[in-house]
Design a protein that fits this description.
The complex is a heterodimer of chains A (205) and B (286). Chain A is built from four helices and 13 strands. Chain A has 205 residues and is of the alpha+beta class. Chain A has two domains: 64 residues, Gyrase A, domain 2; 127 residues, Cyclophilin-like (Cyclophilin, Beta Barrel). Chain B has 286 residues and is mainly beta. In chain B, the strands form four sheets. Chain B has a seven-stranded antiparallel β-sheet with strand order 7-6-9-4-1-12-11, with no helix packed on it. A seven-stranded mixed β-barrel of chain B has the order 13-20-17-18-15-14-21. The radius of gyration of chain B is 20 Å and the shape is elongated. Classes of the chains: A alpha+beta (205), B mainly beta (286). Chains A and B meet through strand 2, strand 3 and strand 4 of A and strand 16, strand 19 and strand 20 of B.
């Protein structure tokens, strides 16, 4: 795995790796060995951001990012969350048309294998979900919706995701789930944290 | 208890924020001017992370339903207690029934009002801050709201004399900037363009970020940037080429390249810039 360190102001370092798989392989080891001066550890699509206290020993943070070995990839040990989904989203037919397959095939592909939480960031509890070769790559909608209801299950680019609350959004909506993605009173508040695996399960409309 | 008679343009409860949850999309939030926030608490003998009121511009009127000590820091403007002029940057006693009137700021943008004991609202993820991006924490304070003040039991006494060196922007702020992770996504001229011109603070600025107007920064790499983590102080450059300086309620990941990041020590100054005021970036190194 190649690792490149990018300077990011006076209190952060951005580690760049080859791809999302490398991020997913490295994150558990970094989480486990995180030094106390690192206040945020934020995975991205091919990066890990370490935010440290201003004035913290930066060289130590850089060495930790460079030298921590990734775990042997054993996805089966990650927590698995099942999300029941009614596949009745307003964009389901359009997604099928874009992919040149039937609606049933879209649902089959979406439920066929577990997805992994890659990173977050759009809203508290929102997770960018990744599955290798999902066969579900579609562009965002050209015009975002002003209001997407909480629980909506969407696709955009190579990712799938679930809206944790009502918000504007441009993802292609294929279904909805009753699962509570975010609850500030729960520990942890986010249902889907980086590294968690997610299996979508079809429930009748 | 403090009754907020007039909440002004925007009054928020803020403390040191809720760092540590960025990986699940929670902004750091917290008082934008960390220096004025710290001063406000120190002046009344509070713990450093006690919640205060962050007032945008003013005017704001508070009414004391119980005797209290408070301090006003940050922006510069006229303050009266019970109709008498009161100093900024000092612990001030307020009698029950007295009004505290904080006038429209003459310099700076955000006042911080501490009450001895701290503003007491229910914490969310360990913080009482209002996160304007994601809606975590208490709702913005409205006129007519009554805010509880926590007990001062166990606190040190109000410091007898305290003095604060203050500096507020006077229309042109200098902010030190360090290289960001995607500086190499921009043309060689872009760094010079960033440092070589004054940028104007846009009226669309808020706690998420200062939007800056000026001659656009030219990209060299036009690829789409895969989403990556962002920091407070990041200068993110959207397709318009005009940078956005991320403040405490910024989104925790983003897909636009970050050319630089403002020095942490200069972020309090950025929090006090008004729309129309100008910023110059000064190149700095670690």
């Amino acid at each position: 795995m190649t690792r490149r360190l990018l300077d990011y102001g006076d209190s952060a370092v951005l580690l760049e790796v080859d791809d999302l798989d490398a991020v997913l392989a490295l994150m558990p080891a970094l989480e486990r060995t995180r030094p106390p001066e690192v206040v945020e550890l934020v995975p991205g699509a091919r990066t890990v951001l370490a935010v440290h206290a201003p004035g913290a020993p930066r060289e130590a943070v850089r060495a930790w990012l460079t030298k921590t070995p990734a775990d042997a990839v054993d996805a089966s040990s990650a927590a698995l969350v099942e999300l029941p989904v009614r596949y009745d989203g307003p964009d389901l037919a359009e997604v099928a048309a874009l992919l040149g397959v039937t609606v049933e095939e879209v649902v089959r592909r979406h439920t066929a294998r577990p997805w992994s939480v890659a990173f977050g960031g759009f809203a508290p509890g929102f997770a960018y979900l990744s599955a290798p070769a999902s066969g579900l790559e579609v562009p965002r909608r050209t015009t975002p919706r002003p209001r997407v209801p909480a629980g909506s299950v969407g696709l955009a680019g190579t990712f799938s995701g679930v809206y944790p609350r009502d918000s504007p959004g441009g993802w292609q909506l294929i279904g909805r789930t009753e699962a509570l993605l975010w609850d500030a009173a729960r520990t942890p508040p986010a249902l889907l944290t980086p590294g968690t695996r997610v299996r979508f399960v079809e429930v009748p409309p | 208890m403090i009754e907020v008679t007039d909440a002004g343009p925007l009054t928020l409860v803020q403390d040191a924020g809720r760092p540590g949850h960025a990986a699940v999309g929670v902004p750091p939030s917290g008082a934008l001017d960390a220096r004025a926030f710290a001063d406000a608490n120190r002046l009344v003998g509070n713990r450093p992370d006690a919640a205060v009121l962050e007032l945008l511009l003013g005017p704001v009127v508070l009414h004391a339903r119980a005797p209290l000590w408070l301090a006003v820091t940050g922006a510069r403007g006229p303050v009266t207690v019970g109709g008498r002029p009161a100093p900024l940057d000092r612990a001030v006693p307020v009698d029950v029934g007295e009004d505290v009137a904080i006038g429209r700021a003459e310099l700076g943008l955000r006042y911080y009002v501490s009450a001895r004991g701290g503003i007491d609202v229910p914490p969310v993820l360990g913080s009482r801050s209002t996160d304007t991006l994601s809606g975590l924490g208490p709702a913005p304070v409205r006129s007519g709201d009554v805010l509880a003040v926590a007990s001062a039991a166990g606190l040190d006494p109000v410091p007898p004399i305290d003095w604060l060196p203050t500096s507020t922007p006077d229309g042109l702020a200098h902010l030190r900037v360090l290289p960001g992770p995607r500086r190499d996504w921009f043309a060689a001229s872009a760094w010079h363009a960033l440092l070589g011109q004054p940028w104007t603070v846009s009226p669309q600025s808020d706690r998420v970020g200062l939007r800056l107007g000026g001659r656009p920064l030219e990209r060299r790499v036009h690829d789409e940037l895969p989403s990556e983590g962002t920091v407070t102080g990041a200068l993110q450059v959207p397709p318009s080429g005009e940078p956005i300086l991320f403040l405490a309620d910024h989104p925790t990941t983003g897909g636009y390249p970050v050319i630089g990041a403002v020095a942490s020590a200069d972020l309090p100054l950025a929090a006090q810039l008004r729309p129309g005021e100008r910023v110059r970036f000064v190149g700095a190194r670690l």
